[in-house]
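Figure 3 (text version): structure tokens given as input.
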């Protein structure tokens, strides 16, 4: 189990991530802030179940926030492997 990790990902914009108290499959808390190159309509999504105890996603124009409690860990490792091929 790791205590905290910060990550950055660039794909049609920039995404900054933080994960707190997480394993390879589950995280106690994880959040992201996104800045997209393309604007979108504003929306809010609240989710419980399907891999998370509680998750809230908020998006307005080019800015997005995503906060999750006790949910499956976000893992972008498979994308790094595809880039190498």
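Below: residues designed for each position.
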């Amino acid at each position: 189990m790791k205590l905290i990790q910060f990550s950055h990902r660039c794909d049609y914009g920039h995404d900054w991530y933080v994960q707190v108290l997480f394993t390879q499959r589950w995280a106690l808390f994880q959040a992201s802030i996104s800045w997209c190159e393309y604007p979108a309509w504003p929306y809010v999504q609240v989710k419980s179940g399907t891999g998370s105890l509680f998750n809230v996603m908020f998006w307005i124009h080019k800015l997005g926030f995503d906060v999750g409690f006790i949910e499956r860990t976000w893992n972008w490792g498979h994308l790094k492997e595809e880039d190498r091929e």
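Strands lie at 2-10, 13-22, 26-47, 52-72.
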